[in-house]
Specification:
The chain is built from two helices and four strands. The protein is of the alpha+beta class. It comes from Streptomyces glebosus.
Length: 105
């Protein structure tokens, strides 16, 4: 028996970090302006999956750091909703998501 397919208008709800990564890929460019393909990381936490780009270390310490710009996204474990957050370190982004979506917590 095959898996049920999402109906039009319904969001997929990820059940693993791998599924969240596949959903998240659609929210980031396929290629950065310098031609590199973005490496994405998934940080699973109690109510969602934080998906964010990971940049390789600089090979030239005198060069300007790469400006990642953009944002992180969180995919809700409850309903698959995708939310954009500022490009903060993962734990700070997760805390911001919790304050926004669980104000009484």
């Amino acid at each position: 028996m095959s898996e049920p397919q999402p109906q039009a208008g319904h969001r997929p709800i990820p059940t693993s970090a791998a599924e969240a990564l596949e959903i998240g890929r659609g929210h980031f460019p396929r290629v950065w302006p310098d031609g590199d393909e973005p490496a994405l990381h998934v940080h699973a936490f109690d109510i969602g999956y934080l998906v964010y780009p990971v940049f390789p270390p600089r090979t030239d310490p005198t060069a300007y750091p790469r400006d990642p710009g953009g944002s992180h996204i969180v995919i809700s474990k409850a309903d698959g909703a995708v939310s954009a957050l500022p490009n903060y370190p993962p734990e700070q982004a997760v805390e911001m998501y919790r304050r926004r979506f669980l104000p009484g917590a």
